[in-house]
Amino acid sequence: IGDNMKAVVSVLAPCASFHFSTLEEYYTGGLFLGPFNGVTDGSAAVYFTMFFMAIAGNDFWRWPVANSGTPNEILLVDIMVFLNVIIQTAIVIMCLKNMFDHQRKELGENEVTGEPLNNKDLVVQVLGYFIPMVALTLLALMGKEPIIDYPDPGSFSPLFYLILLQCLVMAHLTISLQVNHITKSKYSPFKSRLMLLQLSAVFLIYILHLFDISAFTKAVFSDTILVLFSLQLVFQTHFVLKVIKEVSYALEIRVFCVK
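RESULT FIELD:
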């Protein structure tokens, strides 16, 4: 795909479907996987694709599908990204639909359910997921030499670490959501100090970027992204270990013990 917006979209689209599947579980009380779901069937498709690429290589993604040899050439990878976004968007919409359907459903005495659905809370939760993702994506478009569409990233690709940073933010929000689901407490992404830290950092970078755009070269943005990625990795590791410790203590499960 290369260092371009297609790479960002092709990764963030499945991340959104996984997060909203967890949000659906928060409101319905269970993760009900029907046929052609993204978790099992989708993973099988990914495994098959990776296995095929290990044998045949990945040059086939560059096969022209239409308008060959023109500036508007459409490659096989373009079709893949388009279908990926369409499928993941449909999954997110279905997750939201299932939340509302579950709340309107008359439940039996022992039927599984989750937290009560509040429209305002749901709007906050949806915005709280997409705002940091969009904000971090803007880093790829800022500066005198944007890291997006960089023709020759060489051995270091700042866009790769930016995408990985976005995946870590998604994982952090999803784990927070799971913790709130386990503890039967209200979930709000804006209670995440780590997410707010990333938002504040992007806002500060944007303000500084407006004062002197020429100073924000590709090297400066590369270093900035590495710093944000390192902070996220360290703090998130600490967060995950604390979650494991507290949940294992509540469930009386021995974790990180050799005896």
